[in-house]
């Protein structure tokens, strides 16, 4: 039988050791995710690790290191589809990026085990666990740290409501005033309103501004002829 003829105890033992290592290390990574009630928990991380391990191990036995390298490339790209499934968008917030990255690392751990790089797989697992546990206090401290608006990168915009007549001239005045105040304008959008007014929205190039200076510019914009109101907005930078 082909199976009996091709079976080699040494190869089988090597595969067993690789799968056992991937299973154990995937369990360590997944247990931390399961404890924190993440979307991809214990079983998902274990399956990703042993799946990647088996693909690479099989390529190692069939085609040698060159074949394993090709399979690793497919594992790296293929795991992205699985990671995308745990990323969720809730309003302006995106959740699951860390879990998706952990799945990617679990695949790397499995690939190392499948390539008989057990020591490297153990080392990577230690770094993954450290990233998901030891860095949490630092993340919390950074999130709670007071922020200076002047040093925080963001996208600022200036919105105005003005009479439709003379809107083109007003755009030029607004742009010149902002440029003079060292707030260069990236783009100015104009939207017509049904009440005979227009809304001008200017996006500033600056990602870090002095709010007092911006307030002073807004006060000057309100004095321009035809301007009914003027405000500024702030949104997080990409």
From TrEMBL:
- Coiled coil ranges (UniProt) are none
Q: Name one GO cellular component term.
A: plasma membrane
Q: Which residues cross the membrane?
A: 12-30, 68-88, 100-130
Cell compartment(s), UniProt = Cell inner membrane; Cell membrane
MgtC-like C-terminal domain mapped to chain residues: 156-232
Q: Which residues belong to any copy of the MgtC/SapB/SrpB/YhiD N-terminal domain? A: 19-139
Q: Does the keyword Nucleotide-binding apply?
A: no
Q: How does it sit in the membrane?
A: Multi-pass membrane protein
Give UniProt keywords alphabetically. Cell inner membrane, Cell membrane, Membrane, Transmembrane, Transmembrane helix
Q: Which InterPro entries match?
A: MgtC-like_C (IPR048640), MgtC/SapB/SrpB/YhiD_fam (IPR003416), MgtC_SapB_SrpB_YhiD_N (IPR049177)
| Protein family per UniProt | Belongs to the MgtC/SapB family.
* Role: Virulence factor required for growth in low Mg(2+) medium and for intramacrophage survival. May be involved in regulating membrane potential by activating Na(+)/K(+)-ATPase.
PANTHER family, alphabetized: PROTEIN MGTC
Q: What is this protein called?
A: Protein MgtC
Q: Which organism is it from?
A: Ancylobacter pratisalsi
List the lineage, top down.
Bacteria, Pseudomonadati, Pseudomonadota, Alphaproteobacteria, Hyphomicrobiales
């Amino acid at each position: 039988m082909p199976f009996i003829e091709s079976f080699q105890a040494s190869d089988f033992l090597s595969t067993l050791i690789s799968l056992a290592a991937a299973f154990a290390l995937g369990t360590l990574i997944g247990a931390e995710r399961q404890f924190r009630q993440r979307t991809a928990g214990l079983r998902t991380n274990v399956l990703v690790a042993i799946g990647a391990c088996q693909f690479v191990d099989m390529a190692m036995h069939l085609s040698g290191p060159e074949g394993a390298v090709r399979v690793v490339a497919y594992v790296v790209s293929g795991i992205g589809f699985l990671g995308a499934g745990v990323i969720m968008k809730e309003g302006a917030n995106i959740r699951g990026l860390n879990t998706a990255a952990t799945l990617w690392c679990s695949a790397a751990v499995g690939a190392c085990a499948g390539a008989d790089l057990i020591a490297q797989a153990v080392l990577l697992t230690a770094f993954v666990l450290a990233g998901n546990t030891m860095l949490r206090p630092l993340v919390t401290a950074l999130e709670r740290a007071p922020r200076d608006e002047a040093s925080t990168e963001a996208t600022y915009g200036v919105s105005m409501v003005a009479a439709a007549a003379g809107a083109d001239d007003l755009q030029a005045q607004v742009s010149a005033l902002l440029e003079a105040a060292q707030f260069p304008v990236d783009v100015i959008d104009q939207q017509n309103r049904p009440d005979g007014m227009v809304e001008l929205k200017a996006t500033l190039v600056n990602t870090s501004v002095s709010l007092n200076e911006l307030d002073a510019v807004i006060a000057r914009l309100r004095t321009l002829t035809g301007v009914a109101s003027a405000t500024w907005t702030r949104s997080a930078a990409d």
